[in-house]
Amino acid sequence: MTRAEQWLIVAGAGKQGDDCWYSHIADGLLRMDTPPATEDLAGVGTIQRVQSPEWALNPGTAFGGVDTALPSLPAWLDSPVAPAVPPSRHQSPSRLPGPKALPGGDGLPEEEALRRGRQVHLLLEHLPGTPDRAGLATRLLVDDLLATADERAALLVEAARIIDDPAFAWLFAPGVLAEVGVTGDVPGVGPMEGVIDRLVIGPDRVLVVYFKTNARLPATVPEVPLGILRQMAAYRVMVSALFPDQEVEIAVLWTATGTLMSIPHDAVNGVLDRMGDP
């Protein structure tokens, strides 16, 4: 009721009781210094009007009869509005140009290979520290109608082999960050955002680890597909901006063999500058 500036109409429908909102309002008005006056309106019926002497009946005048003519409008209101400039869209490191697999592929169609990669990432994210891995794996993958029981079992074996490997106990230890979202401006590319599989923060260095589920693996760093190198380079740039006083290292964990491959800085220096390279 406090929002009304000049007129407030209170109306209800249905049976009026003693303990309804309409009765409470009517009782409150009757207790005012100026009680409502009964008035008959044609086509409406009997109403009760509470009117303050200061209310202006003419919408063109304000309280006390002061003229309220609208001011002159500024000229810019009649000028065409310039087209809106869409905000810059953040690019994902995984979508940087360049191959993500060795020539010949992994023997799977691209969509199926990507789906399998998402499945393994999901298991590596949630299974560490879980006693009932099989049950959790089934629940995690239950929405994937394309995954058969045999496929889910094979995925569980691959993920469990990585998790149970003593050599990777440090990677799944408490305090290691999983699925870390990062954003940043990468020179030569623009604003980017992505998710890091594992981020290990130490006193002097920070390690970025990315899981890759490729079936055909590079034997050496120079054989790593350019698209993966660009992806890792972008993450190194973004993480370096977050930890300017620490050394940022990057590595790829090939889940098919459980091999952790460190990517030296020399291998990724300049790969983001040659975006036109195939």
Q: Report on the biggest sheet.
A: 5 strands, mixed
- Percent of residues in beta strands: 15-25%
> Which whole number gives the mean pLDDT?
85
Return residue spans where pLDDT drops below 50 for at least 5 consecutive residues.
none
* Structural shape: elongated
Structural class comes to alpha+beta
Taking Cα atoms only, what radius of gyration do you get, to the nearest Å? 34 Å
User: What's the total helix number?
Assistant: 6
Order of helices and strands: HEEHHHEEEHEEH
Order of strands in the sheet with the most strands? 3-4-5-6-7
N- and C-termini, Cα separation: 68 Å
| Total beta strand runs | 7
Which percent range fits the helix content? 25-40%
Write a structural description.
The protein is α+β, with helices and mostly antiparallel strands and 278 residues long. It is built from six helices and seven strands; from the N terminus they run αββαααβββαββα. It has helices at 21-30, 110-126, 133-141, 149-164, 226-242, 265-268; strands at residues 37-41, 45-49, 177-186, 190-201, 205-212, 247-254, 259-263. The strands form two sheets. It has a five-stranded mixed β-sheet. A two-stranded antiparallel ribbon has the order 1-2. A hairpin with a 3-residue loop joins strand 4 and strand 5 (205-212). The longest helix has 17 residues, at 110-126. The two termini are 68 Å apart. The model has no long low-confidence stretch (mean pLDDT 85).
